[in-house]
User: Fold this.
Amino acid sequence: QVQLVQSGAEVKKPGASVKLSCKASGYTFTRFPIHWVRQAPGQRLEWMGWINAGHGNTKYSQNFQGRVTLTRDTSATTTYMEVNSLRSGDTAVYYCATVNFDSWGQGTLVTVSS
Amino acid sequence: EIVLTQSPGTLSLSPGERATLSCRASQSVSSYLAWFQQKPGQAPRLLIYDVSDRATGIPARFSGSGSGTDFTLTISSLEPEDFAVYYCQQRSDWPVTFGQGTRLEIK
Assistant:
């Protein structure tokens, strides 16, 4: 069955960068895009962007354009999200999800604190 | 971007009762409206997509309806495991957006 497994929790200082991973299994990785969504404490879900796992094309929310980079490694069936210039407001759980949002990773907690 | 507004913010009901959750979009989302359930410490779970299609494995007590800008998620008879937060989502236009959620709590 489709499974997305994300990397572990991270603690970063303001201004730092973080790179998260999402490993996919159970389907042909290059056929479908992967979304990234975040949820700050007590807040609604916020879509950040997606990457076409086959071509590598990306689309980002304007809220994150220029600060977030999505990449993928087809041999590892893994997508990556790097977030730069972290600030306290980036403290959140970050999820990856399949193209129709029908499968989600378990989430990665990123804490930004000095 | 399309703003989704859910009501009520919190709904207090008892097991066996019927739950009706609403989602209003700032502009038409055609039929690209989905509903998710989220429990504490868990990822969201897709319940309904394209307004009224149940996702794989979702019980028949969950149903969706609506069109254009006004949508409803109905749970016909609440089970104890249904108490959670529910989010609507639109994929009609970029960026994908979510509502602020409705918390369904046990009365």
User: Anything to note?
Assistant: The interface with chain A takes residues 34, 36, 43-46, 49, 55-56, 87, 89, 94-101 of chain B (CB under 8 Å). Residues 6 and 100 of chain B are 6 Å apart (CA to CA). Chain B is about 0% helix and 50% strand.
